[in-house]
Amino acid sequence: MDVLNVVITLAGLCFLLWVLWGRDRFRVRPDVRWYLTGYLLMALRVVFTWKRVCQINDLSVSYRPNMRSIGGGFVVRGESLRVSAPRIGWPMPTRDGIRLRVRLRPGQTPGPFLQAGEAFGHAWRAHSVRVTSPARGWLEITATGGDPLGKGEPPAEGPGVLLRAEVGRMETGKRWVIDFKLIPHWLIVGATQSGKSTLMTRLVTELARQPVALLGIDCKGGMELSLFAPRLSALATNRSQAVALLETIVTEMGDRMGVCRQHGARSLWELPDSVRPVPLVVLVDEVAELYLTTGAKSEKEEAAACATAMLRIAQLGRALGVYLVVAGQRVGSDLGPGVTALRAQLGGRICHRVADPQTAVMTLGDLNPDAVAVAQAISPAEAGVAVTATETGGWVRARSWLTTAEDARGVAHQSAALVPWLPFLHLDDGRGGGEAA
Ligand SMILES: Nc1ncnc2c1ncn2[C@@H]1O[C@H](COP(=O)(O)OP(=O)(O)OP(=O)(O)O)[C@@H](O)[C@H]1O
Ligand SMILES: [Mg+2]
Fold it and tell me: Which domains are seen in the chain, by residue range?
């Protein structure tokens, strides 16, 4: 009766808040809507169905009750078996779901609970359920109410931290951040229309507001990166231009090494502010275009030059403030001998929907083998959803914020004044930046 009173009171309070706060605000604040309505319902479902779900899925343990026997081992009095589900605490609210602590009974292991995730999801009407074992004898079950990776609105732009870009949202409800100081080089892979360029667009939108130089290589005729033309210090739209740009960057890295040596610094970040060169972010879309050749000697030479330069940037760039983002549909050794070596240097991995299982294995398999199946399960309807490495060494599903071409152009124009002067590009267009390599 007491529980019923508490539930009725809580429901009444939620209704009151709903009326007072206004329905419209609920629409724009899904987290508040969840705390006041969905959370309570799911918590009650969990508490009331827990024992039954455990019993049906063999997650309970049976204790033999006391029996009295008389000679010869004959049982003359007995009671039915006592079935006990593991103990749970009250489901705690998260931004879009619940978190439940479970104390395992002696003899139980997490395995069967991991497999029962789907059953919990159906019983609690949850979008997804994840079971982990943070400590021996304990489980933590997190369930989300709605699809956390549903299409949403990006948050209002903040000032931004240098070389950190918030590109979307993770399935855990947290921000999806690409941090170049933590992981300097990134590989973005996915089938056509899976969301690679959209992610790159969002990344550039974020970096455009920071004091960094952006250099683009887009061998799809510059169709994607040219949106940012006013903010880019250079844009190569074919392989010959790409070779020239990449080799210029490699030369600049040599000069930066000299500056570091002169000041006794082991990296660009140890240099005094007055002499520190501006960080460079090199963005490469459709990387396969740099490697594929018809077999002609000149093309082969260009492809080899691209491969060597990109590899050098990936190997030496971090300490010299040069960062690489490479996007492509495939990253297999069939593209050329340099691809495998480059892939090994790109520590940040993002895998969208893939057309063949090998691509997922190549992108995630060497760092996160268990993420491969998850990447393969991304459907064509989930454009923008990807599996990405986390800062703690694991992986998580995430979705990029959709940035329209109009928004991208707007950001590029607003931030055009931030294009830094790069003497090594030898441009003389009077605005302290450049247009094309
Ligand atoms: N995060 C997202 N949220 C919603 N829709 C998205 C998202 N990312 C991509 N899309 C949709 O998918 C379409 C294709 O995305 P995008 O051009 O980024 O794919 P791509 O992988 O670069 O494809 P291609 O290899 O053909 O260049 C976009 O036009 C957009 O409609
Ligand atoms: Mg693309």
Answer: 2-62+81-144 (3.30.980), 164-425 (3.40.50.300)
